């Protein structure tokens, strides 16, 4: 393992290498536990939250290694405390959401301090606000503000990155129609995820401009005017697997996270000056089997998704509070351990070649596996050194970490590869 990298803004003069902010929350605790078990011994880590007593109580649950870590008191509503935390460390991991409510001040503080930052957001409105507020600042200070380093949106973004690398290595042209298929997935849902979704829906109900941003396929891109005109790109589609790739069987249903993940991947393409290709079209779906009944199942899932989102839009908050998981809660340890996901990505290149990539992990996608992806993203920024992409600003997992993250995740037990199909 390399020693922590040094540069003018995030070198060893900082007190810590990593601060985990939100450690008393569900995913924050899992992330800190992973670091306690897997971070190199020389990694300087601190735990942060708005209550020192609660952070210390969580710290006691993390084992002897974490007992040596420092504790920082910081409150998202206290800008001075957030800024001081950002200046103290090389990387901030934050799991404090909803990010639209609690996240922007910290992202801005990190951008201004030249501090690298990773989070778990799947909120398109927050990501857009952070891009507008922080991209130019972070470019100037050298900070890497990396949103969406969990199940939203590492498998999507890194999976397409792996495809691109394989196609480029073979000199096989550019990517065109590219589709992620959730081949299998099992896991639970947390109150924090639901709370973030509700927050976005409430914002869109109140603000017409917010609805427009959320609906645009290039809503996270640097400049929509420079994007190619590829016609409508819908997130909620039913599609016959054979149209994705001749090897894929059965009809595929809409994937609930597609409306966010697709925009992250398109931002990666734009940030790379459309290296994936100017005809790159990207979508995400999920498998419901390959039998003759798959069309029926896919249609039923599509209707269920529509009904669920509509209910959250229409029903009063008091009713939703009674039936939905509470923030700070999540699936049991048994569910987390039994969970898993496999996503397969397929692309057709301009030379007519077909490629396939796979991203696979054991553990609940949104919790155990996400804690691995988030922690390894931060460790990659600390230890990646010259192997990291030469980029700063508000970035994506692929454009900020790229191959370094793939290598670390494979070493951590995930499976990530791409090859000609």
Q: Would you mind describing this structure in some detail?
A:
- By secondary structure, the chain is of the alpha/beta class.
- 44% of the residues lie in helices and 19% in strands.
- The chain has 17 helices and 14 strands.
- It has a seven-stranded parallel beta sheet with strand order 3-2-1-4-5-6-13, sandwiched between helices.
- Strand 1, helix 1 and strand 2 form a beta-alpha-beta unit.
- The longest helix has 21 residues, at 294-314.
- The two termini are 33 Å apart.
- Mean pLDDT is 88; it is low at 1-10.
Reading side by side through the largest sheet, how are the strands ordered?
3-2-1-4-5-6-13
Residue-averaged pLDDT, rounded? 88
Oligomeric state as shown: single chain
Estimate what percentage of residues fall within beta strands: 15-25%
> Which spans of ≥5 residues are poorly predicted at pLDDT below 50?
1-10
> Largest sheet at a glance?
7 strands, parallel
**What is the rounded distance between the termini?**
33 Å
**Shape field:** globular
Number of strand elements: 14
The gyration radius over C-alpha positions equals 20 Å
Features:
17 helices; 421 residues; seven-stranded parallel sheet; alpha/beta; 44% helix
In short:
The chain is α/β, with parallel strands linked by helices. It has helices at 26-38, 52-59, 79-88, 99-102, 104-113, 124-141, 154-169, 191-206, 208-215, 241-244, 258-271, 294-314, 317-323, 333-338, 368-383, 397-400, 403-411, and strands spanning 16-21, 45-49, 70-73, 89-94, 116-118, 144-146, 175-186, 239-240, 251-254, 281-287, 340-349, 354-362, 393-395, 415-420. The longest helix has 21 residues, at 294-314.
